[in-house]
Design a protein that fits this description.
Blueprint (H helix, E strand, L loop, with lengths): L4 H21 L7 H17 L4 E4 L5 H8 L4 E5 L2 H10 L4 E4 L12 E7 L10 H11 E12 L5 E4 L11 E4 L4 H10 L3 E8 L9 E7 L3 H7 L1
The structure holds S-adenosylmethionine.
The site of S-adenosylmethionine has 23 residues, from helix 1, helix 3 and strand 2.
């Protein structure tokens, strides 16, 4: 299969900045009580649903996978970048991390009780989102929960390896911002039902509001009733 340019660019960028990214964001969650509360609510929901394991898609250095694991969630991570996967494995040897793309997951239909896309859909262009969300809906079991985090807004931001303090030839990547309304509409079109949306104001170095969407693939009985 021919890989789209944006996938190649995303992998090249994160392979280059993996160590610097990991260092910069290693304490991020510790400073974000709202995010920890949202991840705690997500963990509770997926534990309660008992619908299967959770995939942390675009797991990066694996910090969120580790938090979910500590909350009693059976979780594994997947990331495009081999360097990120390597770092995650080294930091959390008790957890499983695989290299792969969430646009085409090597997972059976309905095999996940939950999935997390924590700032990992932000490099996928709008026109590819319907395909991406269809793939997420495919792998979720009925009753499975999704939590998606992203920056809101309209203007994309171009970031380079120099922004991470790295020398050499700069490697760049576009970070997309989106309206929650667009993402909700596309999730629902893919067959996922919005359960909650949280938008918070920018904090610290951030330049835009941050959105957190909880969505669910309806349990079979509810889907039957709606049909
Ligand atoms: C901004 S980082 C977020 C990492 C992690 N979720 C966190 O919050 O620390 C985005 C991550 O998503 C990964 N990613 C982007 N597109 C992906 C795709 N199509 N499949 C798998 N991983 C992807 C990148 O390689 C990168 O590690």
């Amino acid at each position: 299969m021919i890989e789209p340019d944006f996938v190649r660019a995303t992998r090249a960028f994160y392979d280059t900045v993996a160590a610097a990214y990991t260092e910069r964001f290693s304490e991020e969650l510790a400073a974000r009580p709202l995010e920890r509360a949202l991840l705690g609510a997500f963990a509770e929901r997926v534990r309660e649903s008992g619908a299967g394991p959770v995939a942390d898609l675009g797991c990066g250095p694996g910090n969120i996978s580790a938090l979910l694991h500590a909350l009693g969630v059976p979780v594994f991570g997947i990331d495009l970048s081999a360097h990120m996967v390597e770092l995650a494995r080294r930091t959390y040897p008790e957890l499983r991390f695989d290299q792969g793309s969430m646009l085409s997951l090597d997972l059976a239909d309905g095999s996940l009780g939950g999935l997390l896309a924590w700032y990992s859909t932000i490099h996928t262009p709008d026109e590819r989102l319907p395909g991406l969300f269809a793939e997420l809906a495919r792998v979720l079991a009925p009753g499975g929960e999704a939590l998606i985090a992203f920056q809101t807004g309209a203007e994309p931001r171009h970031v380079t390896s120099q922004d991470f303090g790295l020398g050499g030839d700069p490697v760049g990547l576009t970070f997309l911002r989106r309206s929650p309304r667009l993402v909700i509409e596309l999730l629902e079109r893919a067959g996922l039902t919005l359960r909650a949306q949280v938008v918070r104001e920018p904090e610290g170095w951030e330049q835009s509001r941050q959105a957190f969407l909880f969505a669910r693939k309806e349990p079979e009985s509810a889907a039957d009733e709606a049909a």
